[in-house]
Specification:
The two termini are 30 Å apart. It is built from 14 helices and 12 strands. With 367 residues, it is an alpha/beta fold. It binds 6-O-phosphono-alpha-D-glucopyranose. It comes from Dongia mobilis.
């Protein structure tokens, strides 16, 4: 079927706007609606006995894996190894016989991810694939497919595929935690309802579009942009930088907030916007002190936080976007939306080809 842009100028914006719907669809596929209990399909591995999960992917999909690593380690107490496929496949990594491989891919056709899968299979690993296109090469060669229901993604810069990957991986982490006996029913119910509320919370963030566009117009004037975050906000900082450079061609770097003092702080002056991903969570105060170091050096901070965080900051930032307060577990999913919108509007302001950025392809089948 021919897919149109609806009322949107670009597929990317249409796909950003679809996120409440496709996240709801993906959740429904993994959550029993009556009991709100997460249910995975039958898996080829015993989650309780698993010694380690190795997650391999490319590009934005690898950043979904990066968030999943934090979730699986902190919530499910499962050791996770993470690498980009183009490195993993050449490392000759020994693989634990009681471990398993997880690959994450929108297209299911990425050559490096496929090669990493074949390497792990040759060592006897079972393969779980998180895919948006189950009838793909990776889908056919995996032991089980966990299907994100993002629907066809046309924009080269991944948006709804990423957030549906995150939602699916969050469900996976909860299921692993239950199988390993490390989560109680009350906490599981809390996490499940935080996920269930996400489509509504995301719709609220999409309503800030006009405000985010105003900020993006300022960001679009910069030559370099820095994104900072800690914990699960760190991969979102990486994703924000990746999105911005892919479609606006502005040089952007994502950094762990605590690593800033070991290098990027040297770049900071009044010409470098610093986008800080900072939901109110147990790491907030640490990130906040990194932010004060930035402001002390004249850096122009764009602060993404909730009402509590913004109150703490006072009027010191160049700009702030107030997001709804959510359980920190789901914050990386929610905070993806403003970084997508920032990149989108900066690219539109620069007049680039948003859906087909130069030198990039939707699916990379060369190594
Ligand atoms: C390309 C796309 C990215 C994507 C990456 C991995 O570089 O432009 O948006 O994240 O490939 O693709 P996959 O289909 O494996 O998720």
């Amino acid at each position: 079927a021919l897919i149109g842009k609806g009322n949107h100028r670009h597929f990317m914006m249409k796909e950003i706007a679809e996120q409440p719907t496709v996240i709801g669809d993906t959740l429904q596929a993994f959550m029993n609606p009556l009991e709100r209990r997460i249910q995975l399909p039958d898996l080829p591995v015993d989650l309780a006995g698993l010694s380690r999960l190795t997650i391999v992917a490319c590009g934005t999909a690898s950043l979904a894996g990066h968030v999943a690593k934090y979730w699986l380690e902190s919530v499910a107490r499962l050791p996770v190894e993470l690498d980009v496929a183009s490195e993993f496949r050449y490392r000759q990594a020994p693989m634990d016989p009681d471990g398993a491989l997880m690959v994450i891919s929108q297209s299911g056709e990425t050559a490096d991810t496929l090669a990493a899968l074949r390497y792990a299979k040759s060592l006897g690993q079972k393969v779980l694939a998180v895919l948006n296109v189950p009838e793909s090469t990776i889908g056919r060669e995996s032991d089980v497919v966990l299907h994100t229901l993002a629907g066809p993604e046309i924009g080269v810069a991944s948006t709804k595929a990423f957030t549906t990957q995150l939602v699916l991986l969050a469900c996976f982490a909860i299921a692993v935690a239950r199988a390993r006996g490390v989560i109680d029913a009350a906490r599981e119910a809390e996490l499940s309802s935080a996920l269930t509320e996400l489509p509504a919370r995301i719709a609220e963030v999409l309503n800030h579009d006009v405000h985010i566009r105003e900020i993006a117009l300022k960001v679009a004037e910069a030559r370099d942009v820095l994104f900072l975050g800690r914990g699960t906000s760190y991969p979102i900082a990486l994703e924000g930088a990746l999105k911005l450079k892919e479609i606006s061609y502005i040089h952007a770097e994502g950094y762990a907030a605590g690593e800033m003092k070991h290098g990027p702080i040297a770049l900071i002056d009044e010409n470098v916007p610093v986008i800080v991903v900072a939901p109110s969570d147990e790491l907030f105060d640490k990130t906040f002190s990194n932010l004060q170091e930035v402001m002390a050096r004249g850096g122009r901070v764009v602060f993404l936080s909730d009402a509590d965080g913004i109150r703490k900051l006072g009027g010191q930032a160049m700009a702030a976007v107030e997001l709804p307060r959510v359980d920190p577990f789901v914050a990386p999913i929610l905070y993806t939306i403003p970084v997508q919108l920032l990149a989108y509007h900066a690219a539109v302001a620069k007049g680039t080809d948003v859906d087909q950025p130069r030198n990039l392809a939707k699916s990379v089948t060369v190594e």
